[in-house]
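ingest -> fold -> write
write: protein_1
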Amino acid sequence: MVFADPARFVMATCGRRFGKSYLACAKALKVALSKPRSNVLMLAPTFEMSKATLWRTLTDMVPDSWIVKRLDSTLELQFTNGSWREEHRTARKYLYEQQKRH
């Protein structure tokens, strides 16, 4: 139900080992592949947490044939349809950069 929900923000109360990271990666992948040339941003509290959970999960889900460019140092993927998936070092830094732009 959570995966199929069309809302921009979805809230679910989930315990440990429920599959929250897997679900987030699956939704991000769905958006990236269904909307060509889209930019999909995923945030985690720290870069290390992102790499340990989201990056490993996502790269395990995606076949190499779907990827044009893979940057492990910055945790970025470019897909064959022109979409990008990127990770910012921290959510706090991303929000700060967005505030500076506006």
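write: protein_2
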Amino acid sequence: MNEEKDPLYEWMHSEIGACLKREEQVDKDALIARAMADGVTSRAKAEESYAEAMGDWIEAYSLVAKINSGELDEP
């Protein structure tokens, strides 16, 4: 499954990942405000992209935690 993500999702995913790497709190409202300032015209679309990107990070971290705990074998 080679699903192509939209640029807003890719940007949100990257920004969330940068926050996580720096071990900083992810500020949803600030990311959405930056997206809107950069030309995103739909707050709903920005919120949807944020939710999808954050959901993907949560899923990834959950899988890593399960692997590290021995609950799952490494893929």
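write: annotation protein_2
The chain has a mean pLDDT of 91.
The radius of gyration is 14 Å.
pipeline exit 0
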